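can u pls check wat happens w/ FE2/S2 (inorganic) cluster
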Amino acid sequence: MSHQVHIQGTEHRFEINDDENVIDAATRAGLMLPHSCRSGTCGTCMGQVVEGQIHYPNGLPPAIDAEQAAAGQALFCQARASEDLLIAVGEVRDAGDIRPQRLPARVAAIEECAPDVRRVFLKLPGDKRLPFLAGQYIDFLLRGGQRRSFSLANAPHDDETLELHIRHLPGGVFSGYVFDDMQEGALLRFEGPIGNFFLREDSNRPMILMGGGTGFGPIKGIVEHALHLGVQRPMHIYWGARAQPDLYLDSLPRQWASEYAQINYTPVLSAPNTDDDWSGATGFVHQQVVNDHPDLSGFDVYMSGPPPMINAAKTAFADAGLPADRLYYDSFEAAPD
Ligand code: FES
């Protein structure tokens, strides 16, 4: 059985099956609604059910509480339609040819760039290219239906290979394979592109781009895309890491900052090693952003990285006057093994 979903204030209507969530149904209809983790943990897909009833097959997901649910808010990556729906979402975009596909890819190169970070480059079969928006991610499809999400770190114009920055997670099934066994030429399967973390090209506002750890990957893709487009908007890049070796591509944003007048770069270490000889900023990276820009009301902010950084930054940036609809983020939620 299926129902109809109408997005309030738009012409967009789509069909939703009983067994699919709102985000999947919208994607099938060629629409991009806000989403990131697709597992009910990040809150990016939160919207309003204006009319109709939804339900969650596995109970209330972690990123919504009973009070929000009672007020009609919903996590559309988990919500199923019990009847026809009228919904309100922050942003809706026609996906065009940017639609998730399931594809095989070979590992073209593996680069060790920090003790626990690898840059992995993938090549699609033949001359096939993947249309995507800078900053989106892909899901590797593993045995048993498991998935592992990684952001694309290259820009769409530079798409001969797809670049991923993969951190080793102790005990992690997939990252353990990447670090211990994976060889160049290995065949992987993935689905992508996914997510609504991408550069909004229709804005003139200055940007703050903040990455935590391998969250620098999608920031790199967005900046390279912006430079390719000739964007002149000021871009202040922040990269937060524990110690100096974790800034595994530090020379790249330094080079951007020296070549492009519109780019500033501030690396921030939370726990520098004693032998790091570090004279730069220290502490939490989101705090450094607020120290440098106490009024964020005129900015667009893009951030990606671990959930504690994302959650702390959401609060701190809102307190600094950043409107919620100008904060774009990708929270690197860990998938359970
Ligand atoms: Fe739905 Fe993360 S909670 S996309």
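The pocket of FE2/S2 (inorganic) cluster is lined by residues 35-38, 40-45, 63, 75, 77 (CB under 6 Å).
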